[in-house]
Design brief:
By secondary structure, the chain is mostly beta strands. The chain has a single domain, classed as Glucose Permease (Domain IIA). 0% of the residues lie in helices and 43% in strands. It is built from no helices and twelve strands. The chain has strands at 3-4, 18-19, 24-25, 29-32, 38-41, 46-56, 59-66, 69-78, 87-88, 93-97, 107-113, 123-124. The strands form two sheets. Strands 1, 4, 5, 6, 7, 8, 9, 10, 11 and 12 form a ten-stranded mixed sheet that branches. A two-stranded antiparallel ribbon has the order 2-3. Strand 2 (18-19) and strand 3 form a beta hairpin. The radius of gyration is 14 Å and the shape is globular. The termini are far apart. The structure holds zinc ion (ZN). Residues 13, 26, 28, 30, 109 line the site of zinc ion.
Length: 137
């Protein structure tokens, strides 16, 4: 049975958290689910920019343009049939959470950008985004 990630789950690691002893910083927020098979929903209507089959430690990611903002839904297993250039609708299942192969944690790792390049200059703190319901692009 598929379950949904609850609204505003913020028990994961925050945006900007130190990584690698401060050498880098967490580019998104982690919405921990502690098990597989939680759905990751599209926050708004959008167009798929890219699917990343090998993202991090056995997980995948999907990068979606939502109006003027771009969201990376990471560390999931992408749902079947989703391809670059395809349209998604708000609430559509983009994938589901799966345990990573490093430590078995399962989450949606969510990043938000103001442009199609995933650079620090374009990156926003995703904490503003109501994961459900949708944010306003
Ligand atoms: Zn993360």
């Amino acid at each position: 049975m598929q379950k949904s990630i609850e609204n505003n789950v913020r028990d994961g690691r925050n945006y900007g958290a130190s990584r690698d002893g401060g050498a880098r910083h967490h580019a998104g927020v982690d919405l921990l689910t502690n098990s597989r098979d939680y759905n990751a929903w599209a926050m708004a209507d959008g167009v798929i920019i890219k699917t990343i089959s090998s993202y991090w430690e056995g997980t995948s990611a999907i990068f979606v343009k939502h109006g003027g903002l771009y969201a990376l839904y990471g560390e999931i297993k992408i749902a079947g049939g989703l391809k670059e250039g395809g349209e998604v609708t708000q609430g559509q299942v983009l994938g589901n959470t799966i345990p990573n192969t490093k430590n078995g944690a399962a989450m949606l790792h969510l990043e938000i950008y103001t442009g199609s390049e995933r650079t620090s200059a374009n990156r926003l703190d995703p904490t503003f985004a109501q994961y459900l319901p949708a944010f306003t692009p």
